[in-house]
Design a protein that fits this description.
The protein is an alpha+beta fold. It has two domains: 7-46, no CATH class; 53-88, no CATH class. It contains three helices and two strands, in the order βαβαα. It has a two-stranded parallel ribbon. Helix 1 links the parallel strand 1 (7-13) and strand 2 (37-43). It is elongated and about 60 Å long.
């Protein structure tokens, strides 16, 4: 007898309020999931927010030779820093 595969779907709520429309929509989606699917709901506050940032800043520093110590790192900030380095040279 073949049993259906079970899949888990992650639903990320973009609001920190438990009674938000986002959370209500996710709960409803969980109730309407077809057999074999399970919805796991997590809030945006539960996700790590700083994971890749240090690695990205280090990679940009390695590529440009200019150290950046704040996020978000925008293309404009990189260009401004590179233009400032050119003036110093």
């Amino acid at each position: 007898m073949n049993t259906p595969a079970h899949f888990q779907v992650l639903g990320i709520c973009g609001s920190l309020r438990q009674k938000s429309y986002n959370m209500a929509a996710l709960r409803t989606a969980g109730e309407l999931m077809p057999p074999g699917l399970k919805l796991r709901i997590t809030g945006i506050g539960e996700l790590p927010m700083d994971g890749p940032a240090p690695a990205i800043l280090n990679a940009v520093e390695h590529a440009t030779g200019v150290r950046f110590d704040s996020v978000p790192l925008t293309p404009e900030a990189i260009m401004e820093a590179l233009e400032g380095e050119a003036v110093k040279a």
